[in-house]
Amino acid sequence: MPHDSRRPATASHDSPIQAPARIACDLFCAVIDNFGDIGVCWRLARQLAHEHDWEVRLFVDDLQAFHRLCPTLDLQRATQTVEGVVVEHWHEPTHAGETLQIADVVIEAFACELPPVYVAAMAQRERKPVWFNLEYLSAEDWVADFHLRPSPHPRYPLLKHFFFPGLGKGTGGVLKERDLDAARAAFESSPEARAAWWQSVTGGPPPAPEATVISLFAYENPAVDALLAQWRDSPTPIVLLVPQGRISGALARFFDVESFGAGMRAERGSLTAHGLAFTEQRGYDALLWISDLNFVRGEDSFVRAQWAARPFVWHIYPQADDAHLPKLDAALDHYASTLGEAPRRALEHFWHAWNGNRAPGNTAADTAATDGAKNPAANPPTNSAANGTANWTEFAQHLPALKARAQAWATELAQAGDLAGNLAGFAKTQLK
Ligand code: TRH
After folding, report:
1. Are residues 299 and 204 in the same domain?
2. Is the pLDDT of residue 98 over 70?
3. Is the minimum distance from the CB of 298 to ligand 1 under 6 angstroms?
4. In angstroms, what is the span from residue 301 Cα to ligand 1's centroid?
5. Which has more confidence, 388 or 6?
6. 256 is known as an active-site residue
7. Which residue of 154, 171, 244, 389 is surrounded by the most CB atoms within 10 Å?
8. Is residue 32 in contact with ligand 1, taking CB distance under 6 Å?
9. Whether 229 and 359 share a structural domain
10. Which helix (H) or strand (E) covers residue 275, if one does?
11. Is the minimum distance from the CB of 131 to ligand 1 under 6 angstroms?
């Protein structure tokens, strides 16, 4: 039988010094592909545990993907505690931990289906859990209207709330740790920390100050070939930092090497490129902070680039029927809102050109690309409809304006509030 032994004690007048029990939260994550699903869930789980003192269990069906972000995870264990979060290997649809405990707050990430036995037990619980479906991030206007809408379960006396991340007021916001700005400021103001970063990642000193440092995290993208050629021919040095993954095969082809994995260094004209190991999740922020421009993708790196307060280019996760394009434009509407006309147009052109070809997500492709294999079959560009070239010369001349805008945007974005804080706040109102 389900039990709710982890239910928080409500404040009691009889025992004012008794600390209330912690709020128990179960977060379910099914990995569709790549790293964004678990990337978002792992970040949220840690924030709820560390910043809100919740007792969090994270159910995840793909420990391999999780392990890439969190190397201390033990792939062999069905249950383990990592950084104060209980991690359960959710290995079959009906499995929900060894003992069927139902939490105070239940979060199903990205409409993953909860184990039916778990839902049935939720309905039995004396005090019904606060149940969220955490949706994917979208900057579209309709999101604010649907955020926190309740939806009654068709059979059980349960309510589910839709929790919509977003970039504007009235949405759930995006994840931001309390100490993030301070960590970034400390890194940016410490020449020693930055020099140590360059040494550990590239084995050498920081590049000359006139170099433009660019990080490149992207899906396969036919637009990259023309861009690499433009960087090679740039009048000023370009230092390119490429975490190994789905774009690495294109680098290997450009430099005519077998693969472009971690530790690789190659030069052509003004372009020097370094292959980087895929880091533990926190380590990725430093890459964004050290770069003058970041190419990011999916959802979580897209958000981190915004908090890095530096110009970025978004490779949005491609969807059927180009359903992602309105989302791309909605993000541009927010991000570019106060830019002058010329930088705004340069930004729009560049983002659209970078997204002009489809490269559907697929775990197999990411696995195949892990070593940055040169074989094009391992990294197939999946759509031939090239849609204009990403014009580096036009874009680069607006980098100072884009930098100023990126800084202002990070402040604006913070007004929507941190997603974990927004979710915890709403849950508490429901638990009262
Ligand atoms: O990997 P993504 O493309 O993930 C996703 C998924 O495809 C998902 O199904 C889709 O719905 C979603 O995008 C929109 O991109 P994302 O979201 O940026 O996730 C990447 C994660 O990997 C992010 O948490 C940062 C992390 N990361 C590291 O931990 N180390 C690294 O070296 C790098 C480059 C990234």
Report:
1. yes
2. no
3. yes
4. 6
5. 388
6. no
7. 171
8. yes
9. yes
10. strand 271-276
11. no
Please check whether residues 161 and 200 belong to one and the same domain. no
- Mean confidence (pLDDT) of the chain: 89
Query: What is the Cβ-side half-sphere exposure of residue 108, based on CA atoms within 13 angstroms?
Result: 16
pLDDT digits (tens, 9 = 90+) for 351-381: 999 998 433 333 333 433 443 344 433 333 3
Residue 126 annotated among the catalytic residues of the structure: no
Residue 270 CA, ligand 1 centroid: distance in Å: 29
Q: Where are the alpha helices (DSSP H) in 125-274?
A: 142-146, 180-188, 191-202, 223-232, 248-255
* Residues 171 and 142: beta-carbon distance below 8 Å: no
Please list, in sequence order, all residues whose beta carbon lies within 8 angstroms of the beta carbon of residue 24, skipping any fewer than 6 positions away.
6, 7, 8, 54, 55, 57, 101, 103, 104, 105
Which is higher by pLDDT, 71 or 19? Answer: 71
pLDDT for 6: 46
**Residue 96 is which amino acid?**
A
5 within some domain: no
Mean pLDDT for the stretch of residues 419-428: 98
2 C-alpha to center of ligand 1: Å? 35
Q: Is the CB of 164 under 6 A from ligand 1?
A: no
* Class of residue 403 by CB neighbours under 10 A (exposed 0-12, middle 13-18, buried 19+): middle
For the CA atoms of 133, 134, 138, 139, the dihedral, rounded to the nearest 10 degrees, stands at 100
160 and 217 part of one domain: no
Atom of ligand 1 nearest to the CA of 278: 32
Catalytic position from the list 26, 62, 140, 299? 299
How far is Cα 294 from Cα 306, in angstroms, rounded to an integer? 10
Residue 95 pLDDT grade (very low, low, confident, very high; cuts 50, 70, 90):
low
Which whole number is the average pLDDT over 283-292? 98
Note the pLDDT tens digit of each residue in 38-62.
999 999 999 999 999 999 999 999 9
What does the alpha-carbon distance between residue 240 and residue 223 come to, in Å, rounded to a whole number? 16
Residue 281 CB less than 6 A away from ligand 1: yes
Residue 119, both tokens = 């839902």
Mutate to test the pocket of ligand 1, among 301, 312, 314, 315 (most ligand atoms within 8 A of CB): 301
Domain extent for 339: 180-414
Residue 379 Cα distances to 125, 224, 229, 260, 373, angstroms: 49, 13, 19, 12, 8
